[in-house]
Design goal:
The chain has 3 helices and 10 strands, in the order H-E-H-E-E-E-E-E-E-E-E-H-E. By secondary structure, it is an alpha+beta fold. Strand 8 and strand 9 form a beta hairpin.
Length: about 130
């Protein structure tokens, strides 16, 4: 799941790794592409063929520190949180990113609000 992806990225940035390899899933790939789009990661690519497909994530650094400072998981398997598009707010005065699972896929908070889509809250990242 996406929380394992985020934790592995954060830990790899703490020890200054160049890239991370994970087991591939469509959800993880969608989350990684969202992070690439918002410049938290350099690149995300899928390698190999089924059943041994791998997701390779290239990490991004700025001034020797990882671009991704921290994250907070909002929905958990035991407690799922949903939000309407009118209730979507900025994260860290616009410096963070809110990720939602909507009927049109994994979107950030800003584009979900523009498209008038609510959905399941996944995580905040800054």
């Amino acid at each position: 799941m996406y929380f394992d992806l985020l934790t592995k990225i954060k830990n790899a940035q703490a020890v200054k790794k160049e890239s991370v390899k994970l087991l591939y899933s469509n959800m993880d790939f969608a989350v990684a592409e969202l992070l690439v789009k918002h410049k938290f990661l350099e690149a995300a690519s899928k390698k190999g063929r089924m059943p041994k497909r791998i997701l390779e994530v290239k990490l991004k650094y700025q001034d020797g520190k990882g671009v991704m400072q921290n994250f907070r998981i909002l929905s958990k398997p035991s407690r799922k949180l949903y939000i309407g598009y009118k209730d979507i707010r900025r994260v860290r005065q616009g410096y963070g990113l809110l990720a939602l699972s909507t009927p049109k896929g994994i979107l950030d908070g800003k584009s979900a609000r523009q498209q008038k889509l609510g959905g399941q809250l996944l995580f905040e990242i800054w």
